[in-house]
């Protein structure tokens, strides 16, 4: 029983982690789209160098 609960908790943590990563990627994508008229190349260079 204990291992099952632990597994469930671990899966929930992983799911939350992946959802956060996914949301971050979407936000980054939106940021790139909106900043395109200004300086997309500079922004991409900044992201890649980080």
**Alpha carbon gap, first and last residue:** 44 Å
| Largest pleated sheet | none
The count of β-strands is 0
Strand content: under 5%
Low-confidence stretches: none
Shape verdict: elongated
Can you count the helices?
Answer: 1
Share of helix, binned: over 70%
* Average pLDDT number: 78
One letter per element, helices H and strands E, the order comes to H
Q: What's the multimeric state?
A: single chain
Radius of gyration: 18 Å
Based on secondary structure, the structural category is mainly alpha
Transmembrane segments: 12-34
Keywords: Membrane, Transmembrane, Transmembrane helix
Quick overview of this protein structure:
96% of the residues lie in helices and 0% in strands. It has 50 residues and is mainly alpha-helical. The chain crosses the membrane at residues 12-34.
Q: Which characteristics define this entry?
A:
single chain; 50 residues; mainly alpha; 1 helix; elongated
Could you characterize what this model shows?
The protein has 50 residues and is mainly α. The chain has a domain at 20-50. Helix content is 96%, strand content 0%. The chain has one helix and no strands. The longest helix has 48 residues, at 2-49. It is elongated, with a radius of gyration of 18 Å. The termini are far apart.
């Amino acid at each position: 029983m204990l291992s099952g609960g632990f597994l469930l908790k671990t899966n929930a943590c992983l799911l939350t982690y992946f959802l956060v990563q996914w949301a971050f990627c979407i936000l980054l994508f939106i940021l790139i789209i909106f900043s395109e008229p200004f300086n997309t190349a500079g922004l991409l260079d900044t992201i890649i160098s980080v």
